[in-house]
Amino acid sequence: MRRGWLVIPVAVALVAAGCGSGKKNDSAKGGEKSPTIALFLPESKTTRYEAFDRPLFEAKVKALCPACKILYNNADQDAAKQQSQVESAITQGADVLALDAVDAKAVAPQVNHARQRNIPVIAYDRLITGIDYAYYVSFNNVRVGQMQGQALLDAMNARGTTAKGKIIMLNGAPTDPSSGDYKKGAHSVLDGKVQIGREFDTPDWSPDKAQQETEQAITALGRDNVVGVLSANDGMAGGAIAAMKRAGYKTLPPITGQDAEVGAVQRIITGEQYMTIYLNIRQQAEKSAELAVALGRGQHPAAPTKVNNGSADIPAFLLDPTAVTKDKIQSTIIKDGFYTAAKICTGKIAAACASAGIK
């Protein structure tokens, strides 16, 4: 499958001056083009995609271009299904593709087909490899891994357990280039400072598979020898926690995460999970929507940096992640309106929220 919210709007002139793309589009007021924009998300097990990415992207497109048409597809973690979805959108006349790839390599032929049809592509969240395209919008993924590694190291140092056992690393899907960046960042902090007992590249970012991997690691290393878990996202952190509870842990070791899922925030409040990476999904979704509308109108806003994907230097917008522990939930996730306290502090969580000053 990763951070307050600062919107970086495309300059007004870029969305107001609209030069034609040469493709057939309905015209909005003032002669602006109203392109058809296709959004492709990879899966729904990670709650952010349907709860945040899709509605935020669609709302921003509609705010900038009320007459724009949006084609939406979720691939359910199936690369072949996503390939078919992209081909279908091209056939339906999509003017711009915003694509969060299930498999960064497998989708290259569809990106090439789009290029042949002069349809610009935005790699959303995950870098697409092997081909050139218009933009890449994501977070500084190496920095994410560094933050996770540092948070885990700090927690173990505080407990005095750093040299008393080994950690488990649950990396993301090998088909997702972001996973390699997270892993690179984490290793840059942890290598030489902790012992890595077991490390896994978890297919599909699956919480169930992460639970199985954690169970295997506990069996191999011994329950008392596991002193930390570097989990690349919150879903897998949940799987690791389930495995540890099943193994009889009375006190869980520190466990990292990413995405600030509501369940993970609740686990942080109750002490089951140590931290998460808060991604400013609003910023990412809205920036991508702005670029999509601009591209559909034949405009090409300047990007602040470029990222090499193995074949080309892709103009890129890399956003900053935020590491969130219990003491930072109020000042980040709640303050920014990502969740309300009422959304988080339900049932048995309410007392722990009050104790943590979350309101």
UniProtKB/TrEMBL annotation:
<dbReference type="GO" id="GO:0030246">
    <property type="term" value="F:carbohydrate binding"/>
</dbReference>
<keyword id="KW-0732">Signal</keyword>
<protein>
    <submittedName>
        <fullName>D-xylose transport system substrate-binding protein</fullName>
    </submittedName>
</protein>
<dbReference type="InterPro" id="IPR028082">
    <property type="entry name" value="Peripla_BP_I"/>
</dbReference>
<dbReference type="Pfam" id="PF13407">
    <property type="entry name" value="Peripla_BP_4"/>
</dbReference>
<feature type="domain" description="Periplasmic binding protein">
    <location>
        <begin position="37"/>
        <end position="299"/>
    </location>
</feature>
<dbReference type="GO" id="GO:0030288">
    <property type="term" value="C:outer membrane-bounded periplasmic space"/>
</dbReference>
<dbReference type="InterPro" id="IPR025997">
    <property type="entry name" value="SBP_2_dom"/>
</dbReference>
<dbReference type="InterPro" id="IPR050555">
    <property type="entry name" value="Bact_Solute-Bind_Prot2"/>
</dbReference>
